[in-house]
Specification:
single chain, about 200 residues, alpha/beta, Glutaredoxin, globular
């Protein structure tokens, strides 16, 4: 009798678990929930980007972005500066997980004209990204593509973050989420902006 009760209880528990998962997917809440869980992983500091200057080739500046005001912004505008270039989407849980951290990093450098942030949304509708950033009260400058993305920036996964030094060299190419708001990474960006 106890085996039957145990089996019945297990079936009920699994039913509830599967029901919760289905509800999260149907309501679209799976992205923020998974993003929040992955955000907890980032808080541990276990997933950090490289702070060494690697050589991933030269950046191709020949493409155009569109900002939140529907103004065209040639990527070439940022040439000669240190560029934190992140490709993300609102439907991507790891993108959502790292966004608060990147916003904090951006806020720390908002007065530094030698370090620029380009947050490229690949959402089908740019309004979705704009609404998300506004709702979260992020200060990050977000963009969408207004032309084709050069091959060197194509990535099979998001988020992907590139750091481009003032000489146009891609020195960081990080696929997947990372904790960027650290003293070590801030020092790295400052060093790049000063040519170190």
């Amino acid at each position: 009798m106890s085996k039957k009760k145990s089996l019945k209880r297990e079936v009920i528990e699994w039913g509830i678990f599967i029901g919760i998962i289905i509800t999260l997917y149907v309501t679209g809440l799976h992205t923020p929930v998974l993003g929040a869980l992955q955000g907890l992983v980032l808080k541990t500091g276990l997933v950090q980007p490289s702070t060494e200057k690697n050589d991933y080739g030269l950046a191709n500046y020949s493409f155009e972005l569109k900002d939140v005001n529907d103004e065209s912004v040639p990527f070439e505008t940022f040439k000669g500066k240190t560029i934190f270039f992140n490709i993300w989407a609102t439907w991507c849980p790891p993108c959502i997980a790292e966004m608060p951290d990147i916003d904090n990093l951006y806020n720390d450098f908002s007065d530094n004209s030698e370090i620029v942030f380009v947050m490229l949304s690949v959402d089908k509708e740019f309004e979705t990204a704009k609404t998300f950033v506004k709702k979260k009260e992020y200060n990050l400058p977000i963009y969408q593509l207004n032309s084709n993305l050069p091959e060197i920036f194509n990535s099979s996964s998001i988020p992907t973050t590139f750091v481009i030094d003032p000489d146009g060299k891609i020195v960081v190419n990080k696929k997947g989420m990372a904790k960027y708001h650290t003293n070590k990474f801030k020092k790295f960006l400052l060093g790049l902006s000063k040519g170190v």
